[in-house]
Design brief:
This protein has 315 residues and is α/β, with parallel strands linked by helices. The chain has helices spanning 16-27, 45-52, 67-77, 96-106, 131-134, 149-154, 166-172, 183-193, 214-232, 238-265, 269-282, 286-297, 301-307; strands at residues 6-12, 34-40, 57-61, 82-85, 91-92, 112-120, 126-130, 163-165, 198-209.
């Protein structure tokens, strides 16, 4: 195999079928100078890799459990100039490598080219809205605009599957291993804080599987909290730090309200009251206050709260 330009990094921790879909999406790339490094945690990847007989696909057995650790292991084996991380149940669109490589070639000083992504179902249907629009991005500044840490913290969401120069990846230290599901978010924050140039190519060049497992969403919420705690510590800029801390407070508020709704759905008044109390510590809001009062002092507080469950929707 000739020296690859892209090293695509993934970790397998479940059934073989999603990996097949990922490999197919990578083999369909219009830019063929890639290698795929698969770190196998589950013991299911060998037959899949052997089936293709493609020496661009390399397999390694996991040394340390966890997606972040597996990606770092894959990066340690990589020989390409550009790294791209993809979860085994996600995929890349056929022109991902070609389009991002073109931007990096045209802009030698750029360290990362991020892209947009769309959700896809088991039936192959795609979501009508993209990752960035779902994240609140309403106007794309274009690939000539370098993303700032302030913009990123304020809500310029970056999809994790990006084209990252190997030198920039190594200088930033790769993936954290204790923030499952948001390793990319923290990596991008560290890169921006240390002055790396990140651009966004606003094209749907990657895909993520929907719906996500509810258990994964719970892990995601906890990890986002930890990530934003660390992001607030990355900068001395008071405005950026304030925005990060405000975002952290909003995350905690919405997480607590979501858990309160879950508790009410199973008639657990004590747990619902505790979660609403946590939400009110982050932000006073009339609706949570009403629910908390009902659960605390009214004899029929649980019934009142259950009948008003919709009031727990974030406002």
């Amino acid at each position: 195999m000739t020296q690859p330009v892209f090293s695509i990094l993934t970790v397998v921790d479940g059934p073989e079928s999603p990996l097949i879909d990922l490999i197919e999406s990578i083999r369909e790339q219009t830019f063929p100078e890639w290698e795929l490094i698969v770190v196998d945690e589950s013991g299911t990847a060998q037959p899949v890799v052997d089936k293709y007989g493609d020496d661009r696909i390399r397999l390694a057995q996991s040394e340390t459990p966890g997606f972040g650790a597996g990606v770092n292991q894959a990066a340690g084996l990589a020989t390409g100039e550009i790294y791209t991380v993809v979860r085994a149940n996600h995929k890349l669109m056929p022109t991902f490598c070609e389009r991002t490589h073109g931007v990096l070639q045209a802009h030698p000083g750029v360290d990362v080219v991020a892209v947009d992504a769309v959700g896809f179902t088991e039936a192959g249907e795609t979501t009508p809205t993209s990752f960035r629009s779902e994240g609140g991005v309403t106007a794309e500044p274009g690939v000539d605009h370098p993303v700032t840490l302030a913009e990123f913290v304020a809500g310029s969401v970056l999809y994790y599957s990006a084209a990252i120069r190997a030198a920039a990846w190594n200088a930033a230290g790769g993936y954290a291993t204790d923030v499952p599901t948001v390793e990319g978010l923290l990596l991008f924050a560290r890169m921006l804080a240390q002055g790396n140039d990140i651009r966004v190519l606003p094209e749907p060049l990657a895909g993520y599987r929907v719906p996500e497992d509810p258990a994964v969403f719970q892990v995601y919420q906890d990890s986002v909290q930890l990530a934003f705690t660390r992001i607030a510590e990355l900068t001395d800029d008071p405005a950026v730090r304030s925005t990060a801390l405000h975002k952290l407070s909003e995350i905690r508020f919405h997480q607590a309200m979501g858990r309160a709704r879950q508790a009410l759905s199973i008639s657990d008044a004590k747990a619902a009251r505790a979660q609403v109390r946590l939400a009110l510590r982050e932000r006073f809001s009339v609706k949570p206050a009403i629910i908390y009062t009902a659960l605390t002092i009214a004899p029929s507080g649980l019934k009142l709260a259950q009948s008003a469950k919709k009031r727990l929707r974030p406002n």
